[in-house]
Amino acid sequence: MRHIKTKYEVLRQKIYIIIYGSNTFAGKTFDLLLLGVILLSLILIMMTSVIRYDDKYHSFLVVSEWIITVFFSIEYILRIISNKKPLSYIFSFYGLVDLLSLLPMYLSFFIPGSEFLATIRSLRLLRLFAILDLLPFLNQSSHIKDSLKASMNKIIVFVYFIVVMSIILGTIMFMVEGRHNGFTNIPNSIYWCIVTMTTVGYGDIAPITPVGKAIASFIMIMGYGIIAVPTGIVTAELAKNKRKENAKSHCPKCKTYIYNEYANFCYNCGKKLVDGEVKL
Fold first, then answer.
1. Is the dihedral of CA 195, 199, 204, 210 positive or negative?
2. What's the pTM?
3. For residue range 144-186, what is the model confidence (pLDDT) as tens digits?
4. pLDDT tens profile 51-87
5. Helix pair angle (135-177, 210-247), 10° resolution
6. d(CA 80, CA 71)
7. Reduced to 3 states, what is the DSSP secondary structure of residue 265?
8. HSE toward the beta carbon, residue 156, CA cutoff 13 A
């Protein structure tokens, strides 16, 4: 027997098409409107942090931000209601971002100043990739995530080495320079070592003695290597993943690029693609 949809189900479907249908005209129009409101919200938050603007337009900025927050709250509720699997949306990346973008304004009742955390809404601009059909670019983030995960152990060992070196060199600088030259204690000296090693160089503490300057020069030179090593580790993993991807994405017979990773046959020559086969 054919199921006749109720008015509520029809309404839910229409809302779903508008909110989630980024390929439809109504969906793209809604997404563009949403992005515009997000940008407006970010501008208002930034203006609120500027004292002269806040003093002059405080009421307008607050009211506008609350109107936008209510709009986002209604949109969040509609996303839950129109989704057939609301929990999958609520606990998804975008669902959590949508929720976090609402909380700061409501938390401002209990924690003054927390409304500035509404800049989390900038993460919602990631939907721009879906609107402009740039999802392949967004999917590249998975390669970076896999590379970082594969490099994690090496990076942890490297960071541990840096922490130990900072403690040792900071202690040496405390002994060489002393309290009268600004190195008042070992933690303060370790802070100086980290600032110098990362080539930040605030300049609030500086060595005076020749020996201290020699040690500082060594730390500065070592700092360039510290910057390069993690980058090299991650880059090597990215290159390795890229080679694996290329090896699995070409037909072993005619070398044609296989766009569908689940394809069983090459669309160009008809060669059977066996799972696990290296397609060089």
1. positive
2. 0.61
3. 777 777 778 888 888 888 899 999 999 999 999 989 988 999 9
4. 999 899 999 999 999 999 999 999 999 999 998 888 9
5. 160
6. 15
7. strand
8. 6
